[in-house]
Amino acid sequence: MDWIITEQSDIGQRLDKHLTGRLTDLSRSRLQDLIRDGHVTLNGRPAKASISLKPGDAISLIIPEATAVAVVAQDIPLEILFEDKDILVLNKPPGLVVHPAAGNPDGTLVNALLHHCDDLSGIGGEMRPGIVHRLDKDTSGCMVVAKNDIAHRRLSEAFAERRMSKIYLAAINGVPKEKSGRIQNLIGRHPVDRKRMATLYDGAGKEAVTEWEQLSVYKECALIRCKLLTGRTHQIRVHMKEGLGSPILGDPIYGHPSRQKIPSSRLMLHAWKLSLNHPVHDQPMSFEAAVPVEYGPWMCK
């Protein structure tokens, strides 16, 4: 794509910042990579990300086609909570990426699932076979995986129509003023930091609703039970930070781990309970992922 700098508000901006504001579907780091690799030119020549724009500057951007990546099966241990011919429910450990992406070509949950389920390939897409929802890399707990196309379609519909119950445990860096509540707002991509989500206004973003309850307190840090009524990216992490004013312990994006009241080697967010109807025979099912040992001080209260 090609365009010329004509708007007064664009003049003097860094090239990478201008691209981030114009191309909201690409992260700033991704755009900086494109600039560094010569896929962005300024007035017909490669340019640095930090160069300031002038009136009449001509920018050209070519996004290279994605290179196909073969997803290989890998023998990675899984904690299976339930399995039949249609679905698999597991307790995902913290630190395990769900599906391959740039920077994580293997060693993911998908690689493990391909080894565990011989016929999973292709269910729901080559790069995300069987995946109908995801947990962040550092979040642990319940996940359901589809093992055939019918299960994948019906589970996807159930998530979209909010016909599942998802309850999380979050240990936060502080104690809320109230004992329980409901946070409801609009969440979308942060306008500057594309790695983060944020509360947005003026109709921007998508509805995000979390019901929460304080379970216990340890060393001025509260354990919060969160019930998700929607499933937005980083929803609980944003709601704890912006709604309760206390980020989740160990959160490197929305918090400051070095300033925490309690040190934490992981993000203290756990997908504790998951309830759904079986996608084929419609039987109500409930699952619970054992509470990790790191939550011990709060669970003993």
Automatic annotation (TrEMBL):
Start and end residues of each RNA-binding S4 domain: 13-77
Q: Name the catalytic site residues.
A: 136
Q: What class of enzyme is it?
A: isomerase
One Pfam family per UniProt: S4
Write out the entry's keywords from A to Z.
Answer: Isomerase, RNA-binding
* GO biological processes: enzyme-directed rRNA pseudouridine synthesis
Catalytic activity annotation: a uridine in RNA = a pseudouridine in RNA
Q: Which SUPFAM superfamilies match?
A: Alpha-L RNA-binding motif, Pseudouridine synthase
Domain of life the protein comes from: Bacteria
Gene Ontology molecular function: RNA binding; rRNA pseudouridine synthase activity
- The keyword Isomerase appears for this protein: yes
| Cross-referenced PROSITE patterns | PSI_RLU, S4
Enzyme Commission number:
5.4.99.-
Show the CDD domains listed in the entry: PseudoU_synth_RluA_like (cd02869), S4 (cd00165)
Listed Gene3D superfamilies: Pseudouridine synthase, RNA-binding S4 domain
Q: Which family does it belong to?
A: Belongs to the pseudouridine synthase RluA family.
Function summary: Responsible for synthesis of pseudouridine from uracil.
Q: What is this protein called?
A: Pseudouridine synthase
